[in-house]
Amino acid sequence: MHRLLFVTALLLPLLTQAAPAPSATTQTAKMAQTLTPVEALPLAPDFTLRDADGESYRLSALRGQPVIVNFWATWCPPCREEMPSMQRAWESLQPQGVVLLAINVGESADTIFQFTGNTQLDFPILLDEDGTVSEAWPLKGLPTTFVIDPQGRIVYSAIGGREWDDPKLLQPVLELRRPSTVAQHR
Amino acid sequence: MTNNGLRTVVGMTLLGLCAAVQGETVYQRDPQNGLESWGWHGDGASFTFTQRLPDQSRAYFQGRGLTPEAAEEVAMACVFQAIVRNDTDLSAPLELHLADWRVSDAAGRAQPLRLEAEWQQQWQRLALTQAARIAFRWSLFPSQQRFQPGDWNMGMVTFNRPPGSRFDLDIVWQQGDEPRQLRIEGMRCAPDQPI
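The joint structure predicted for all components is written out below.
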């Protein structure tokens, strides 16, 4: 037990991550910048969640504009790694009428505060502490990101991290602002 | 027959039916921490497995709310960090079921991985908190997943072998309509020693 405590104290940054940071960093260079069309266009499961400041967000209240919904956790290396690019994407997308919501899976507000203390994130970070919303959505692992069209349908998905400020990746999202864009692409 | 039993039979059958694949197996040892990793890249897919020391797993899972006893059980189950990626430039999805994978010891005895559903039954018996069970669920590599081109995922797998033991890993997956299989030989669980 003493050995464990000693090692834990010395190596806390490494031990509390799901994987050593170099592994995740290695992945960044290999990221394929793709959004996969979701052919069935299922209606996105509605939710009402609060952010760390207590403000409430309901997905269905955002109809009429594209919404990016990202599922993540602080202990997930690729989730952390894509957050800065997500912040830059949000700075570009918000003035253009696209909403970005990041849903944290299963962690407390305190844990998220510790993370955002080191990484500036201005977009809404919602708390799914009991995992109910995450279970209702079609995701298997973290991070997973969905793009919702103005009609509330899931139109794209991305499993694994991406560089979200890549214009090529964001173009299909911006095109959703035009009516019938999805129908034109299918 | 239970679902698990049926999947076991299917998995063993798949190992006999799948086509072997072309690719490159890569072994690396991190000079900083000594952790070893094995990977394979080719044919539109890549798999990477990196050792996790038992101490890493003990600390990580206790930090996520598992009791010391529960974290110890995971730590001794040969934990690796897995990364799977669909690298194809075609539109073929990659689909895998970890229940189809096998680890074989030196004598050729094959056994399945220990998957999340089995762990969750144990956590229910041990009455772990909901927060701990949620963290555990999302920390593990999904037991089944479908990756479209460009998709990838990272998560922990438990090969259910003793620390320090060697084994061969048989991986099967589906790329588009084509079943594929791969054997990575000479993998080793991390020894139970401090970093």
